[in-house]
Amino acid sequence: QVQLVESGGGSVQPGGSLRLSCAASGSFMLIVMGWHRQAPGKQRELVARITNGGTTSYADSVKGRFTISRDNDKKTVHLQMNSLKSDDTAVYYCSISAFRDDEVKDYWGKGTLVTVSS
């Protein structure tokens, strides 16, 4: 069984910072780890992703403010969020693409709420 557990969400004022973490457990081979978010009334969107080789990509709206990193040994991924804006308010979901049972599958965490408000 694959499990993803997120932590680090909460409330912060505009301009503040938060660090999200996600720990993956189970038997699989990691390929890509990432973070998505879903704001009220909007579709889920990709925020950032990082490959096994460390290649990163970001949504245009977070470039220069968010940094994704991973620890392959610990199967963890982090999202450092700086200069937060009210538009960043959303539920943030950890996701992985992993090789398991002879195929590549996507797995999701339950999400952690980030609220940016004064």
Describe this structure in words.
With 118 residues, the chain is mainly beta. The strands form two sheets. Strands 2, 4, 5, 6, 9, 10 and 11 form a seven-stranded mixed beta sheet that branches. Strands 1-3-8-7 form a four-stranded antiparallel beta sheet, with no helix packed on it. The termini are far apart.
Class by alpha and beta content: mainly beta
Count of individual helical segments:
0
Approximately what portion of the residues adopt beta-strand conformation?
over 45%
State the low-pLDDT regions, or none.
none
Count every beta strand, where a strand is a DSSP E run of 2 or more residues: 11
Radius of gyration: 14 Å
Q: What is the straight-line distance between the termini?
A: 40 Å
Mean pLDDT figure? 95
The H-and-E topology, N to C, reads as EEEEEEEEEEE
| Major sheet details | 7 strands, mixed
- The amount of helix comes to under 10%
Which descriptor suits the 3D outline? Answer: globular
Q: TL;DR of this structure?
A:
This protein has 118 residues and is mainly beta.
Which properties best describe this structure?
mainly beta, seven-stranded mixed beta sheet, 11 strands, 59% strand, four-stranded antiparallel beta sheet, 118 residues
